[in-house]
Design a protein that fits this description.
Helicase, Ruva Protein, domain 3; Rossmann fold
């Protein structure tokens, strides 16, 4: 669209009076209107570029309107299309929308209706262009493949991906549900020398022992009831590419043995087969919790653990990287507003603050689902706090953490810690408040916390806590002011 006009519209109709009439109706509204008598002329006009919206008749000599829509998608996919026809049927409308039309109007055209539909179509064009630019800018500045983040934790994840991707090293990804473990695995594959090979994902927890074994290693005809034909497994299908095993901790011990042997020799036999098959596969695994804990509990083979744990990538939960939430919100708003053809351009400061305040137990997946719902149901052009469900709209509840009487003086204050705070963060807050409560006296603070001075110094270094000078008066702050 040029700065001088509201947009360039191409009118395609074999009837001259219709073409001229539409031009006379649209040009006074500020649109630059060009005309075409058939599909061939229309395609030539589209090839020249700059057409924001095409109004096309359905019945025309030669290629009809539906065929023109198909051709326009190849020549100028960014151009919106409104179908005009005197032969209005539900079937035609559905077919036009399937081919990529934005809207559908019947002849004789109501000019007021046409004006409204044209405005909406061009607004959608602008929104799509803006969203594409926004998404490109966000991903260029903050992203890696489809993963977004500008926090220190995510920058470490991105750097590890860059380092490990060119190698064949087995990678283990640890992260809570919804943090994007499969996205990380996909990113490693897509920037590796294997990017032209297959990326095969297997969700181990969703398959029974016998089915998982067959899925991974394949089976021969007659290997078990129902095996009416030989079938290659996921390892064979991933040859030359990457195999991603999600929730690898759920694999049965017998299959763990076969997996260990594969990682030692890079070969296996199908279920019921005797032929040894050798493949070139990059293995990436993932779990919700560290595999080392399962090894200690006797639920996972230690030798297999060391084979899988060559490089570990830990994805932080969203509540530990809240500075990334505004970036994710902007990206999801752009994605869903374009996907749903809704001009939702932004979010109010109060609404964004509520999203940042919420702890997101479902992590990025939950945030994404919430934003999609908000965009679909948004009554205006911006997300407002009133749209939020109560659990997100209300401030996070706080839980009181009260030190025991043996540890602190009787007059000690309560320390309020927000629900969902990590253990490390709670410990840091407790140390800081105890230092303040004891006038920055290291010895007294260590006694109150029931730890040695050496341990306290180690904790201070670990949490980068600076100890200020003691107050000369020795006065303590009122308990109700300490948070």
């Amino acid at each position: 669209m040029t700065a001088q006009t509201k947009g360039r519209i191409l009118v395609v109709d074999d009837e001259k009076n219709t073409r001229d009439g539409l031009r006379q109706s649209l040009e006074p509204l500020g649109y630059n209107v060009s005309l075409a008598a058939d599909a061939q002329e229309a395609i030539e006009a589209l090839k020249s570029g700059g057409v924001d919206l095409m109004l096309t008749d359905l019945r025309m000599p030669g290629a009809d309107g539906l065929e023109l829509i198909k051709m326009s998608q190849k020549v100028s996919p960014e151009t919106q299309v409104i179908m005009l026809t005197a032969y209005g049927t539900v079937e035609t409308a559905v077919e036009a929308m399937k081919q990529g039309a934005y809207d559908y109007l019947t002849k004789p055209v109501n000019l007021g209706e046409l004006e409204s539909r044209v405005e909406h179509a061009l607004m959608n064009t602008r929104l799509r262009a803006e969203n594409v630019m926004l998404r490109e800018r966000i991903h260029k500045t903050y992203g890696f493949e489809k993963i977004l983040g500008n926090s220190a934790a995510m920058k470490r994840v991105f750097e590890t991906i860059r380092q490990v991707a060119p190698t064949k090293a087995t990678v283990h990804i640890v992260g809570e549900s919804g943090t994007g473990k499969e996205l990380i695995a996909n990113a490693i594959h897509n920037v590796s020398p294997r990017k032209d090979g297959a990326f095969i994902a297997v969700h181990c927890a969703a398959l029974s022992k016998s089915l998982l074994e067959s899925e991974l290693f394949g089976h021969e005809k007659g290997a078990f009831t129902g095996a009416v034909a030989s079938k290659p497994g996921r390892f064979e299908r991933a040859d030359g590419g990457t195999l991603f095993l999600d929730e690898v901790s759920q694999i049965d011990p017998d299959i763990q043995v076969k997996l260990l042997r594969f990682l030692e020799e890079w070969e296996f036999e199908r279920v019921g087969g005797i032929k040894t098959i050798k493949v070139d596969v990059r293995l990436i695994t993932a779990t919700n919790s560290p595999l080392g804990e399962l090894v200690k509990a006797g639920r996972f083979r230690e030798d297999l653990f060391y084979r899988l744990n060559v490089v570990t990538i830990k994805i932080p939960p969203l509540r530990e990287r809240k500075e990334d939430i505004p970036i994710l919100v902007n990206a999801f708003l752009a994605e869903f507003s374009m996907e749903n053809k809704k001009p939702v351009h932004g979010i109010s400061p109060e609404a964004l603050e509520a999203l940042v305040r919420y702890d997101w137990p479902g992590n990025v997946r939950e945030l994404r689902n919430v934003l999609e719902s908000l965009v679909v149901l948004c009554p205006g052009d911006a997300i407002e706090l009133a749209q939020f469900p109560p659990n997100i709209r209300k401030p996070a509840k706080e839980k009181e953490v009260v030190a025991s009487a043996q540890q602190v003086p009787d007059e000690a204050a309560r320390i309020l810690v927000p629900a969902g705070t990590s253990l490390q963060e709670a410990e840091r807050l407790l140390i800081q408040e105890s230092l303040r409560d004891n006038n920055n006296n290291i010895s007294k603070t260590a006694r109150v916390l029931n730890i040695s001075r050496r341990t306290l110094h180690r904790k201070l270094n670990e949490y980068n806590i600076k100890v200020g000078p003691r107050e000369a008066s020795g006065h303590r702050r009122p308990a109700e002011n300490r948070r």
